[in-house]
Fold these 3 entries.
Entry 1:
Amino acid sequence: MAFSALRVLKEGLTGNSGWTPHWRDPAPKDEYDVVIIGGGGHGLATAYYLAKDHGITNVAVLEKGWIGGGNVGRNTTIVRANYMMPGNSEFYSHSLKLWEGLEQDLNYNVMHSQRGQITLFNSDGARDAAMRRANAVINQGDDAELLSVGQLKKTLPYLDYDQTRFPIYGGMLYRRAGTARHDAVAWGLARGADRRGVDIIQNCEVTGIDTQGGVVQGVQTSRGPIRAKKVAIVVAGRSAQVAAMAGMRLPIESHVLQAFVTEGLKPCIDHVVSYGMLGHFYISQSDKGGLVFGGNLDGYASYAARGNLPMAEHVCEAAMTLMPMIGRAKMLRSWGGIMDMSSDGSPIIDKTHIDGLYFNGGWCYGGFKAIPASGNCYAHLIAQDRPHPAGAGFRLDRFATGRGLMDEEGTGSQHNLH
Ligand SMILES: Cc1cc2nc3c(=O)[nH]c(=O)nc-3n(C[C@H](O)[C@H](O)[C@H](O)COP(=O)(O)OP(=O)(O)OC[C@H]3O[C@@H](n4cnc5c(N)ncnc54)[C@H](O)[C@@H]3O)c2cc1C
């Protein structure tokens, strides 16, 4: 069913009785050309672009829970293209361009809102680093603008500029950055893939990967074995566990990242604002009015999708330091997601040592913005057995050879610091 203004009007006048489910609920077949393990944003985008760009539709997405239950439905939804390292820079630029056409492409309102992101800096050194990043972004063909304190005061009047501990020196504005509604992204991609013939199979956990003589044969699942010519792993926080089913040991650790949301408020924060002092802090206001914010990882490896109280306190401390007005808001919910932290902080989209087995992961806490390009590049790799130019730097062997590492944060091989 196609969405249009006319359709919405008609359904509104006829009791909304004509809407049908967005995707089918098929039983798994015995065999597929491609099996995708993981129905998060990246898995669904891969299925969507396999069908749309490469005409490969005999595809199953196997999801152990439900669509949108993983990190794709748990993140703070910031979409931006301000990466600096060659490899990352062109990839995120590609992703932002895909975001800009995604709603028309999917015929689905993913509420992509290019409200602009402002990254604050609080020292001369931080301003230099911000300028360097901005110049790299501009060289890539994207946009960045330096804002003075005077300009910031007009744009973000609610910040505490008078604090002596971390005075604000200025900010970098990325106008095309913003947010999108996370669930809608998963639902829109699922619907788009399903309409092209992809089977989306929920409540189907992959428990084993079958190989013979170095060639993939299929997967074992909680709903029986499924044969496949190609198997694509894309399970975010569960990457190490699922890759271990094929005997692989990955340069990835899983860590918890929390997010927080307040009660719904009248519109007061127009941009995404991020702040590097006191750890890390970022905030935006959702379309429902809640202030959505977060900080750094909890700091230890874990598979628990919930976080610790010290980090909650730390994030609230940063929020109060930056914008004391937030102390008047009531915090409504907090939750955690399991982040697949790679040792250089950049992702992997590559073949594996097993013929027909592919791996996509290591998105750390930045994979929401990557969803369209990740799916686009992974589908290209699976269909054509050669990397897409925009994702060609995300090779798995860089961790073994040391060549082509993309340490965006410059923190060295410490998963929890990226
Ligand atoms: C609190 C928080 C804030 C974040 N904020 C941002 C942000 O502002 N901007 C940004 O760009 N990124 C952000 N991220 C990161 C982003 O959400 C992730 O990098 C991205 O969603 C990961 O990819 P995914 O959507 O495919 O993951 P997921 O949605 O987690 O998908 C993986 C799926 O694999 C399934 N799976 C696992 N094991 C199996 C198995 N054995 N068999 C079958 N299925 C399996 C899981 O159930 C899951 O549904 C944030 C993350 C969190 C937690």
Entry 2:
Amino acid sequence: MSTASESSAPDTVRSTPRSPGHIRLTSHSAGFGAPQISWGAATAAERGPVIATTTDRAHRNVIGTHSGSYSVYRALAVAAGALSRDHRADLTNTSPTDVIGPHRQWADPNAIVSLDPWGATVAESFPELLASGYDIRPTIAVTKAHVILPEIAEAISRGRLTPDGEFLLSTGAALVTKAAVEPVWWLPGVAARFGCSETDLRRTLFEETGGMYPELVTRSDLEVFLPPIGGQTIYIFGDPQDLSNPAVELTARVHDECNGSDVFGSDICTCRPYLTHAIEECIQGAQRGGVGLVAYSRKEGRALGEVTKFLVYNARKRQVGGDTADQYFARTECVAGVQDMRFQELMPDVLHWLGITRIHRLVSMSNMKYDAITGSGIEVGERVDIPDELVPEDARVEIDAKMAAGYFTSGAVPTTDDLRQVKGRGLSG
Ligand SMILES: [Zn+2]
């Protein structure tokens, strides 16, 4: 039974000391005080800072806020009273471990449209604005790490890799420089990439997020949007400065997130084996005097999400005739309405941020990734497919279907008849 005081509580939401007491509509004009953004300007000062703070609305010059999808957790932390809404990041000692750029691509408004090239260096780029009270936060962080993978230890024990004490230690640890990159979209440029009008893009983003960002339709003067999606992480093997030098051999893989395989070793696809093979290739490349790069995008399950992905697994394995390669794409399309939502059009931006003009060895079989990279003006030399012995038994369905659909292979392309024969495990197996 409820107590008298609880049952007599008014049926309204009461303002708590940590809430602002009134809703601040984002559709209202921000007023004065927001610096302009000139996307693609040659210097940070001319381009202007990206200000996505929620504390001083008058300073905001973008739609959305920091941290991609984690912005919702930040809101939860504020709602729960765990985080002060006025908290300012103390950025002491957080500056990048390695200098990236500036590269000439940073001054081309069409080369980079989905990240802020100046996002790692806000402290160096905008000291006066920061000193005068503008809450400008990094959207890119660059650090160093050792990565230790059982596949690399195995490659050492089998003699494919040899520790050199510089790129690969005798402990099996590979030395990397890594960067985390949040999405920052310049809407006119994103619309151009997808061949739609900016108005249609804004309206569709507004409607398909359930009306989450009214400014998309009310504030056409704000051209930059920080979308609530995952970003990218890059891992560099060797000297990051070498990435922009076309004379230095670059081994690179652009990899889309697959939690089931990448982290948990699920054997229905080739994601982790291909990723660890790429890391092995990157280490070998660095040891030859080159540089290696893995760019990892948070686009789980072809950007359809894991729920859709697991539904598709069941549909594949329960269909009449079992899980065959000839039905691989059809089952995804039945559940999701499309075969793929990764749309690689924005993916090359991170390569242009790094100043890359040539990839000597692209460790990917995807024609969509290859087309996006070369279409953005980056030369690609050799393409490196996954060695056959690294393809798990149950993943033959996926890789054969992809090769038949146009993925690069140095071997034979499976025929329609072959695809009918390639069969995966059942659900009870
Ligand atoms: Zn996978």
Entry 3:
Amino acid sequence: MGAIGSVRFGRYAVPLDRPVSDAKVATGRQRPLSQIDVLTCEITTADGLEGLGFSYTTRAGTPAQYAHAKEVGENLLGEDPSDIGRVYERLLWAGASVGRSGVAAQALAAIDVALWDLKAKRAGLPLAKLLGSYRDSVRVYNTSGGYLQAPIEEVKEKAERSLAGGIGGIKVKVGQPDMREDLRRLAAVREHLGEGVPLMVDANQQWDRASALRFGRAVEELGLVWIEEPLDAYDAEGHAQLAAALDTPIATGEMLSSVAGLVRMIDLRAADFLQPDVPRVGGITPYLKVAALADHACLQVAPHFVMEIHVHLAAAYPRDSWVEHIEWLSPLFEERPEIADGRMLVPDRPGLGLTLAAHARDWRLDGVLLGGG
Ligand SMILES: [Mg+2]
């Protein structure tokens, strides 16, 4: 077995074609999103294997992730990359002073994903197969066409294009200051697409408890797959009350950056669809702990964003759920996901099945090589 010989971290800013706005922008809390910031980790072993991992942030945080990764990353050199649990713990202890959530966890996520990619490549298996897969494809819905800055005609047109391209469901952003506008847009999309198309909505945390309940009751008849982040991401009790009060399932969890935060959501039955995010929660290692507990509680898991990693994890979860199609990170990689009949195919290449695109260097802001000298 080859020990870790070198580790390369990179920091990238990947521009979006057009800035997008969700409810956090409509309510004045954030500016439109114009780029995704990415931390990459490439681990090379003495016997010549390579693992690729990445983490991301929106608007702020990647310089801090990069700094933390560089600082604790020295601890990887000489380690056996197959001992992921032990290596992860070593990194946690190296950075124990800054905790097990937020930026610190997200820096470790890039490393952890690279370790899992490497392990699956060593086994000659796609990551889903290494973990133990239940299926070769996962239901997929599109989010990127349903943002609030887009006029309703554009939302309808993009939804149609997505469905024609094999996507199985459509998510529409809601949570505008005037709820009647949300209801109008949603009714227009439902009418345009017809009854049979799975439809989700996402309020990005912009309602109080009373507004969320009012919205939920107003849309019960639309048969939505879920209502996402109706409340503040940390309001576990509020989500639990809403989930109990409504027939429409509740989805949340994307903002939580610790196992403890997500476990609290599970314990309170605050979501019907839990939405952990591998880079945000600290990597695949902590994600798997959350997924095991979610399954034990009979919950659905529909991971947030980063389809490139999550298609493997959704395939390895007992209950058939959904992955989110957002193509924002695609320019970084040579490969594109295969989509057909409403589902995303799990790549049959070893590991994550991803390689950094040659032109990714155009968006690189910073890079460092540890070891390998
Ligand atoms: Mg969301």
